[in-house]
Amino acid sequence: MALTTLDAKTALVVVDLQRGIVALPTAPHPSNEIVERSVTLLDAFRRHGLPVVLVNVAAGAPGRTDQGRHTGDFPAGFADLLPELKQQPSDHLVTKRTWGAFTNTDLAAYLQQQGVTQVVLAGIATSIGVESTARFASELGLNVTLVLDAMTDLNADAHANSITRIFPRLGETGTTQEVLDLLDSTRA
């Protein structure tokens, strides 16, 4: 489904644009393009006085997987948000220890307190942090918008699966420009 509208109280949630994640090889889009588009979205949401949530990951969740499990905290500096994001005092920071931004964090309470009914998601990695956050937001009954050209993955096939098979079932998808156009037209 194409992007149709933005609710009056829509929040931007930018997932894991931090030093350790952005340094990893990404596909199909290079991380610098994702950072650039996310900064454009951040500037627009702030200009319109809408809530901005910056998410970082500081550790891996416990438990075994076939691919092994990172235990403990990540190396120093790994979770540092990129300076390009220009974090503001009004931004809400969510530090997670799982894939999704809602589990064991205050994100749901913050959004409810702000009266948010819709989230716009961008970041890295499409099939991990972004998808997990989108799934939980959908389960909470929030309208979900996924900005497809403002996200990328560590694996091109995983990215393609998320955007073609999963995201159309969780919300509406669009581009950075489509979100910007809707922001400007509905908040003029």
Describe the SSE topology.
Layout: E1 10-15, H1 19-22, H2 31-47, E2 52-57, E3 92-96, H3 107-114, E4 118-124, H4 126-139, E5 143-152, H5 156-170, E6 172-174, H6 176-186
Parallel strand pairs: 1-2, 1-4, 2-3, 4-5, 5-6
What does this structure look like?
This protein has six helices and six strands, in the order βααββαβαβαβα. The chain is 37% helix and 20% strand. The protein has one domain (10-186): Isochorismatase-like (Rossmann fold). The model has no long low-confidence stretch (mean pLDDT 93). Residues 10-178 form the Isochorismatase-like domain. Keywords: Hydrolase. InterPro entries: Isochorismatase-like_dom, Isochorismatase-like_hydrls, Isochorismatase-like_sf.
Multimerization status: single chain
The biggest sheet amounts to:
6 strands, parallel
Number of strands: 6
**Using only CA atoms, what is the Rg?**
15 Å
What's the rounded overall pLDDT mean?
93
In sequence order, what are the helices and strands, one letter per element? EHHEEHEHEHEH
CATH superfamily: Isochorismatase-like
Regions with little confidence, pLDDT below 50 for 5+ residues: none
Instruction: Domain count, please report it.
Output: 1
Helix content: 25-40%
CATH topology: Rossmann fold
The backbone outline, from C-alpha atoms, is globular
CATH architecture: 3-Layer(aba) Sandwich
The N- and C-terminal alpha carbons lie at a distance of 25 Å
Strand order of the largest sheet: 3-2-1-4-5-6
Concise overview:
It comes from Paraburkholderia monticola. With 188 residues, this protein is an alpha/beta fold.
